[in-house]
Amino acid sequence: MDTTQRTDQQRSADRRRRELLEAADRVVLRDGPQASMNAIAAEAGITKPILYRHFGDKGGLYAALAKRHTDALLASLRAALDAPAERRERVESTLDTYLAAIEARPQVYRFLMHPAEGGQGGDQGFDVGKHSAPLLRRMGEELAQVIEERVDLGPGSQQLARVWGHGIVGMMHAAGDWWLGERPCSRAELVRSLADLLWGRLAAAGDRMGGPGF
Amino acid sequence: MDTTQRTDQQRSADRRRRELLEAADRVVLRDGPQASMNAIAAEAGITKPILYRHFGDKGGLYAALAKRHTDALLASLRAALDAPAERRERVESTLDTYLAAIEARPQVYRFLMHPAEGGQGGDQGFDVGKHSAPLLRRMGEELAQVIEERVDLGPGSQQLARVWGHGIVGMMHAAGDWWLGERPCSRAELVRSLADLLWGRLAAAGDRMGGPGF
DNA sequence: GTACGGTGTTACTAGCGGTAACAAGAGTCT
DNA sequence: AGACTCTTGTTACCGCTAGTAACACCGTAC
């Protein structure tokens, strides 16, 4: 009686929540990250207070929205990361997966990473500053875990793996961001270049002028 | 007559501008990145429209503010980057310079990188999203130029250098951000770990379980 | 019937970025 | 002297935002 009622209501609420998130998604993808709560509510065919009842505040809505995309992206990355292949191949495949994702849906990516970039109007966009870090952090921790599991780094391996995880994710992120804006080369070339960097080609290359003393 | 007059006025305007920027700096460092134009104007002892006459809009003020810090940081980095030392030493020194800077003035750093992170109030903070990229971009391009000048990368070196420049800067940034938040190790250890990563230790390390086939 | 929990609305607050309109001082030209 | 202009400063406003309070409706349980 009470239980079935409750579950029914809960289900209904969950479905509604999903609908609202999808509406928010549409608006954000259309209007850019500075989409207002009013606009999202209108797109969902309702008014603001309902949105606030479901998500608390704008940050809550954003967090829910970001979690969806982040989870999806992380799942893809995990697949590439855990593939039964050689390390170099796995690294390249992971890089490529990430870059393909941001290439395929740049607006989603920009929304997750850069709060209010597009649009000429006011700048009260989503306060993604508080949340973009968590995305990068999650990716960094995930990668760190995989590194620690699969690579033999000797003593201090856990700490080293975490540094590397966050570092590599940052490299991927920044390079991808720059590449997405300028498109100076193909995705494959970018992947190769980054993998080369991780493979120590910087250390292996010779100096261009004079000796190391100058 | 006209010229001296003009230069006088220009000088006065420049001085005023600098005063305003210093006031803005104080407010941003005190109130966090969500400092309002009103608050900055009040700190400077004036009212909003003057601020707008000097900087156009909030983005302009932020850009001016960011340029000061960015220029200072870039100058330090250039010094470390151009030092007459071996490559590994130069890399470590540059990493350390950057990390020391963000360690010494985390509030400035957070302001430059993360728009509205602190504070519990409204989220109409500085719209740094539009401008944090430029900082990373500038660092990336700078590093790319140094790499291209000093490292012999064979054909396609320019493009490779740019990819690496942005990638390394991103690595430094993300790792530094994470490190600043968690402080899991000393600065020196972090520097060493990152340099090791760039030196190909990831590629050189052995697998932990099974062969590369699993 | 009536009380109730959920869904929805309208109407509002407080604060933001940004601007128009106006006032006052200082130097300049006639 | 008086009018003209330029800079510096103000007050008062606009339109927008996030977020909230208060009220209305509707199906169900007793």
Could you name the CATH class of the domain at 65-200 in chain A? Mainly Alpha
How large is the share of residues in beta strands of chain A?
A: under 5%
Tell me the CATH topology of the domain at 65-200 in chain A: Tetracycline Repressor, domain 2
Name the quaternary structure: homodimer
Largest interface: A-B, 70 and 70 residues
Number of strands of chain A: 2
CATH homologous group name of the domain at 65-200 in chain A: Tetracycline Repressor, domain 2
Q: Helix tally of chain A?
A: 10
Rg of chain A over CA atoms, rounded to whole Å, is: 21 Å
Low-confidence stretches of chain A at least 5 residues in length (pLDDT < 50)?
1-6, 116-130
What's the story with the biggest beta sheet of chain A? none
Topology pattern of chain A, helix = H, strand = E: HHHHHHHEHHHE
Organism (chains A, B): Streptomyces yokosukanensis
Domain HTH tetR-type (chains A, B): 14-73
Protein name (chains A, B): TetR family transcriptional regulator
DNA-binding region (chains A, B): 36-55
Structure described in brief:
The structure is a homodimer of 214-residue chains. Chain A is an all-alpha fold. The first copy, chain A, has 10 helices and 2 strands, in the order αααααααβαααβ.
